[in-house]
Amino acid sequence: MVTPLTDFTALSFDCYGTLIDWESGLWTGLHPLLRRNPREVAREAALERFAAVESRVQAETPALPYAAVLAEAHRRLADVWGVAPDVEEARRFGASVGDWPAFPDTADALRRLKRRFRLVILSNIDNAGFARSLPRLGVAFDDVLTAEDIGFYKPDPRNFAFLIARMAERGVAKDKLLHVAQSLFHDHAPANGAGLASAWIDRRAGVEGWGATTPPPDGVRWDYRFESMGALADACEA
Fold first, then answer.
1. Cα dist. 205→46, 110, 171, 186, 202 in Å?
2. Which among 47, 48, 42, 57 has a CA at the least distance from the CA of 24?
3. Which of 16, 44, 148, 169 could form a disulfide with 126, with the two C-beta atoms 3.0–4.6 Å apart?
4. What are the residues facing 179 on neighbouring strands?
5. Which CATH number covers residue 79?
């Protein structure tokens, strides 16, 4: 039996892909590199290639700040596409996180959810990058847990162990916490392993492929599915 949404007391969120439109941000940030590529690379192909490269960088260097992860991914993508690397261009790509837009429904949905729940961020980001994104989100979060703080990138299960322990310190039991995320690979699979309930915000509904997210493992599951944050807020209010 599915737990009623109003039985939860805290919601933890992935940020980039769920609240912030990271695919649009990545695509825009890759334009200078792609313009130097003599062969045209379609948006979905570019995002899928980025997903593969980014995952390798994060697995190899889990202590690297996310801005540096992006810069290294940019360098490797230049090599993949046969384009001369550009250190300054890679640095700008790494610093572009704060320019990425929020989804149009994000701020309003978070404000509505804030009336009912403790709101927590669990994100593959560094603290400086999240600080630049925060004004776009429209609320103050009760806790912000970043890869920089934890020392590992999702889907490493230690991120979810850290989240559960922090919520226990706040008096929130695991069965009162709902993890809300777009990525089945980064979030729902490790949330399954940690025994957390989860809500899939399926931002790519109707679009083939996984875009900038690594394909998920077999058997990944979720407790709720919505196509927007607004739909999640509507369901909680209903």
1. 19, 21, 35, 17, 5
2. 47
3. 148
4. 12, 198
5. 1.10.150.750
Residues 181, 232 within the same domain: yes
Which range of residues forms the domain containing residue 88? 22-99
Nearest Cα to Cα of residue 128 among 101, 94, 79: 94
Instruction: List Cα–Cα distances, 52 to 99, 133, 229, in angstroms.
Output: 23, 24, 26
Classified as helix, coil or strand, 21 is coil
Q: Print burial letters for 176-200: b (CB count within 10 Å at least 16), e (below 16).
A: bbbbbbbbbbbbbbbbbebebbbbb
Are 132 and 172 in the same domain?
yes
Question: Are the beta carbons of 9 and 142 closer than 8 angstroms?
Answer: no
pLDDT per residue as tens digits for the range 16-61: 999 999 999 999 999 999 999 888 999 999 999 999 999 999 999 9
Structure tokens at 50: 């980025």
pLDDT band at 2 (very low <50, low <70, confident <90, very high): confident
For residue 98, what are the β-bridge partners?
Answer: none
Q: Are residues 206 and 118 in the same domain?
A: yes
On whether both 113 and 137 belong to a single domain, the answer is: yes
Asked whether residue 70 falls in the same domain as residue 152, the answer is no
Q: Residue 158 sits in a domain of what CATH number?
A: 3.40.50.1000
Active site positions, annotated = 14
Quick one: 39 and 56 in the same domain? yes
